[in-house]
Predict the structure.
Amino acid sequence: MRIFLVTILLILNSGHALSVEPPFQQASISKPDAGKLWLRSHAAVVMDQHSGQILYQKNAKAVLPIASITKLMTAMVLIDADLDMQESISITRADKDTLRYSRSRLPVGSKLSRMDLLKIALMASENRAAAALARTYPGGKTAFIDAMNAKSKVLGMQQTRFSDSTGLITENHSTAKDLATLLKAAWQYPLIKKISGVGKGEVTLQRLKNSLEFNNTNRLLRRPNWQIGMSKTGYIKESGRCLVMQANISGRDLFIVLLNAQGKLSSYGDSGRIRKWLEKFDANRQAKSQ
């Protein structure tokens, strides 16, 4: 004890004061009351993009079919392969949907660049385009699906499984929690943001020598009061209405996942409810600080 006291005195006399560091505290953003938000979607996650804090979650670990949300992973795997994006690819009978017979604006025999196929797959959720991208991948469709599942494992998406590139089959499943991780990863791809974050676009059908205009399946992108940087919708009967997106609401950059909403407009209604919930919270907080 005497040696210890002498050491302390020597340190103080030398001009170096002892200091005790406060315990580390993780940064946290102001969080609204999740109990005041009601959503029609069966599963949902609202995540602060920068801190990773979950502002709201509902059945976030429920494993559900994800329909065309699949195409975000399709896009990442394609871009990772670093293929020639200007290569012309023909739509063949192998690309037709023989499970649900979904409509397509790409006739068999039409030719598009790989880039235009990616555009129409992400924006218009064109199933033949997504099928053609997988079919023309090195090693074909099987190798493409293997790459999708390998990518999901690397990202830590433990409850996610892919069996095709379109999302037409129910075996493509995930959770709201895993899809928030998918959004975070997809945000690192400038091309995905550039394509999926705009309301409408145009591709060229090379053999027919004409252009094809199309709208993004997320109608919120055509509303001036929404700031959306990336998005994807999905629907099959088993999945209900699905919507994932990056959006800025009330000055917050967010990743939003909405799964299995019943009703054609329910996911958009939920998006509006999330927006009002956050805007009301921030308005009340600002009023209290004045």
